[in-house]
Design brief:
heterotetramer, A: alpha/beta, two-stranded antiparallel ribbon, 11 helices, 8 strands, 42% helix, globular, C: alpha/beta, seven-stranded mixed beta sheet, five-stranded mixed beta sheet, 13 helices, 12 strands, binds thiamine diphosphate, binds magnesium ion
Chain lengths: 306, 306, 324, 324
Amino acid sequence: MYLIRYFEERVIELCHTKELEGLVHVGIGQEGVATGIALSLKDCDYLYGTHRSHGHFLAGGTDPKLLMAELAGKDTGLCRGRGGSMHIVDIPNRLMTATGIVGGTISLALGTAIAKRDEGAVVAVYFGDGASNTGSFHECLNMASLWKLPVIMVCENNGYAEFTPMSAHTVVENISDHGKPYGIPATIINGNDVLAVLNAANDAVKRAREGDGPTLIECLTYRLRGHYVGDPEGYRGAQEVSEWREKDPIRVFSKFATSKKFIREEVMLEIRSSAQRAVDEATEFMRASPWPDGTRVADFVYGPSS
Amino acid sequence: MYLIRYFEERVIELCHTKELEGLVHVGIGQEGVATGIALSLKDCDYLYGTHRSHGHFLAGGTDPKLLMAELAGKDTGLCRGRGGSMHIVDIPNRLMTATGIVGGTISLALGTAIAKRDEGAVVAVYFGDGASNTGSFHECLNMASLWKLPVIMVCENNGYAEFTPMSAHTVVENISDHGKPYGIPATIINGNDVLAVLNAANDAVKRAREGDGPTLIECLTYRLRGHYVGDPEGYRGAQEVSEWREKDPIRVFSKFATSKKFIREEVMLEIRSSAQRAVDEATEFMRASPWPDGTRVADFVYGPSS
Amino acid sequence: MKDGQRFIDGLQRALRAEFEHDPLVMILGEDVAVGGPFGVTSGLVDEFGEGRVMNTPISEESIMGVAIGAAAAGRRPIIEIMFIDFLTLAMNQLVNHAAKLRYMSGGQLSIPMVIRVQQGAEGGWGSQHSQSLESWFLHVPGLKVYTASNSIDAESMMRAAIQDDDPVMFLEHRGLYFSNDNLILNKIEDPEKARIVRDGCDLTVVSYSRMTRECLNAAAQLAEEGIEAEIIDLRSLQPLDLDTIIESIKKTFRVMIVHEAVMVGGVGAEIAAQIQNLAFDWLDAPVTRVGAPFAPVPASPILEKAYIPNSALILEAARSLVGD
Amino acid sequence: MKDGQRFIDGLQRALRAEFEHDPLVMILGEDVAVGGPFGVTSGLVDEFGEGRVMNTPISEESIMGVAIGAAAAGRRPIIEIMFIDFLTLAMNQLVNHAAKLRYMSGGQLSIPMVIRVQQGAEGGWGSQHSQSLESWFLHVPGLKVYTASNSIDAESMMRAAIQDDDPVMFLEHRGLYFSNDNLILNKIEDPEKARIVRDGCDLTVVSYSRMTRECLNAAAQLAEEGIEAEIIDLRSLQPLDLDTIIESIKKTFRVMIVHEAVMVGGVGAEIAAQIQNLAFDWLDAPVTRVGAPFAPVPASPILEKAYIPNSALILEAARSLVGD
Ligand SMILES: Cc1ncc(C[n+]2csc(CCOP(=O)(O)OP(=O)(O)O)c2C)c(N)n1
Ligand SMILES: Cc1ncc(C[n+]2csc(CCOP(=O)(O)OP(=O)(O)O)c2C)c(N)n1
Ligand SMILES: [Mg+2]
Ligand SMILES: [Mg+2]
């Protein structure tokens, strides 16, 4: 979680200094979800992200160097600079793809589940509260339940779709209610409690792996920063943000872990400083990396045999 | 109901003799729904159909002559021959449009409701059990409830989407279950009981007209003929069809009405023969009508001012 | 009529062969397990099971996504879109994911899938069951677009499409399914090469899909008038085999392009633009285009007949082109 | 910079004026009530209320349908699609209903609506937030397609679009929103007439939207080399004002078309095809097309720069065209 937090704080700085361009969404405040879900998955499993997926990928094993280089559009980036923040892909870690299309990866996850269910794989996919408005989400609930697919649908409910609070984009009380008509087991949990996320995810993974079909996990969380880097945030008050700051998943977990002595103070410090080091290294790597060759802009459109 | 039934039986004959071409879907067996809904609406209300809308339109006041001419592609047809069976429009009767796109009119109905709610109008829209698989249906449930629109969503659940029984296209038990997450009042009724349909529709219309928002009415019914005229119907057994023949909405209502003496036998006979006459006249009218002028094929693409 | 020579027979042979040849091949779509409305996939489910022949709900956007997700994970899915008109519901997944994932991932992902699409005007089915939208897809880098006018090409090109590592749209004209080939054709190995279906020296006629047949009809009439048309069936629209076209023009100096789609913004526009650039000095007359008028497809059989380009229209355009 | 001369100011004036002028006008879209991500609709909700400025959920397909249903019932809705890339989700309603309902109903229905679409590549936003898909819509009878390159046209054409009785797509290039007009322009009453933004006699350059500005930059450089380019800003893409183009060609004998969209299958294809037909004998050289390479829009700023056609590329093409 520290790695994700420090990484994204660095991303914001680099956006401000224009070392990073593009439309960048950070998930600061939502690290508990990314971390809990990633911990529940095995090497054989697959994951799909959203437009806000740096954390999903880092938690899933992505090398921060390759990610930072990608965000900067360098040739050493995960996607050779072609993807950028919203379209990262890390196949060695089975992080299939992020997407700039809200709700766009849910159906992809179903397809991957069909392809890989016989190998015992589970597929997790993220989507937001806003994405619950998209028709495709509902089409996928139907198909996932009809075909009993080993899919974990993780809703990061941060209470907003861009600048619109949930109460203004739906009358539905809980996103997890959508599971009911389909008989899809659905839980609501505190997404800022990484252990709660992990527990719920473990249950869902178990169910999926045993052939019992999909699970919907609604993680209540909050993004402590703007919708995108540069968002003036006129749509919410400082009070609300500071209340959620108290529930910062990293703060909550650190306090819990050190107070209960699961993790010693020194170890925690070491975790933090190694995360900081990794982010520094990633930044260095990004800076030292070459730009892609502009004349190769039309590479990778078709496969090598075409 | 007799008019619809006789009309569609004639349509089938005319398809077989090739006087009618095109892809034609009849709703024989489902007349109870069309009739009950139409009876609940006032002149100021609007209605949207599906690909199977001859009955919806006839019940809504469409002149059988103009409809028959349209199905034949004559210049005197409702749409000057441009629409055909799946794309009929009858604006004088506020029958806004049928559509060849499954689930395609639900959102249109919402828009018309927004436009006309201040005039006290109610908008009814039909869709099938198969259409409940389309994302747009769910997007519309959300918006209709969010905006409390005066919309009546009428599901003609005939148990099949083309050749696929409902159990194979969804695990959802009742289409009306989809109303729950949105707090949309939803009822399941016997769609072959025209009075039950009328009752449910009256309630829904009242609610809509009083500003209390949308209602979902699931009408259980059955199409006694194939999905389209010419369908070999390999996907269902004769036993099933004959069971439903017993529940034919016209037979049920006629028996009820005459046995309870609501309608005298002679009146019923007169209703039947006048329906038969209307269908004969429609056929004559269609036959006597001129074809559209082929050189005007690109008329009506843009409005007169363009 | 020998059944084996119908367009649909070619498709069925290709599907069956690829299903047998590669266990990763699968098909999904509405009612495909019962054969679909035209019977193209008839019998597949009995032979290869529901795991590989999947009926789907009416959810075009998401079943396109499902196919992409399966392809991304190494399967070779074929998705059937019952009518091209409904492909409008799946454009997001097709354009934003299928076409772009290889690129956006810097080559990490392949999306080996076939999008089978039935299309075209025939029988008075009206504006929403009759369109020809292929030109849209020419404009989408990452997609390939194949068509066929006969059973031989239907078979060999479908097999090639399934084996391709990129998303291939395969357009099937409804008016062709049950038609018999009226020519004995050789098999062309490369699916992306055009086919010269008739030799001629007076003008070049470029077409594809069902219109190839109308062109052949017109050519027979033209021959009686002493005009010999060379007819090229493009087969692949993306990539386009310009070489074959230009070579022919160097012999005929005159060219017309015929398609059923609306003329404005159609495939003919791109071809005409390329021809006038590549063969500017070889052209004795402007490139002529024949396509549908600027209107939706009408339902009335009389209007539909007036709408679809036919051999009379082609004849007229050819005569005026040669007279130019 | 005078604020009032920015592209976005023109749009805002048009929206406000039409909202005031006609109570049937309304707007709907994601976050429009808070101004949208670019602030185009800022303040409208305060002035005209939530009944006319409606925030919608993320449901592109259905909000397009809602707009159509409102238009069919007599309203004049404007729908904002935040990025053209998401319009792929609403193609069904746009193409199968908005464009066809007048036709299919035999003229009973009118669909007076405006589809405002932000689009274009700028700032490294990547393949799914940068496309230029306008050529698709040229191929759809029933739609009109307007663009603007400056605040004057943005204002007058948006007003005309809102008053039009047919569905009009209004394309807004993100790279223009906050740019100031660099020319003093007169207002052209007819939205469907092209604008000659620069006179010249050596070649004709046809463009639209942001690329008009790149063409002007290139023309300044060309003038220094003694080449005078006539630059035509098309404004409306459907219908196309071919007359203005052909008239210019009769003076220059050379023409090139420049757009940001992928060259293959772009608007330039249709224009080139029409020009070579209408002005065959007037052309001293083939119609030249400049457009993006055949690839999705890359995210990397360096690649994006290499991708978007710029004045250097236009210059090069112009030099070679004039030298031809
Ligand atoms: C299909 C589509 N429509 C609209 C957008 C613009 N958009 C980007 S993020 C966003 C809000 C998404 O909300 P949510 O799903 O809750 O995710 P969050 O941003 O809160 O993480 C919107 C509307 C988009 N990217 N894709
Ligand atoms: C978007 C779309 N997908 C597929 C079809 C093909 N199709 C026509 S009717 C139909 C089944 C519809 O089932 P249902 O909604 O239950 O209506 P019913 O035919 O039973 O009246 C299908 C799949 C279509 N017309 N539109
Ligand atoms: Mg959210
Ligand atoms: Mg049904």
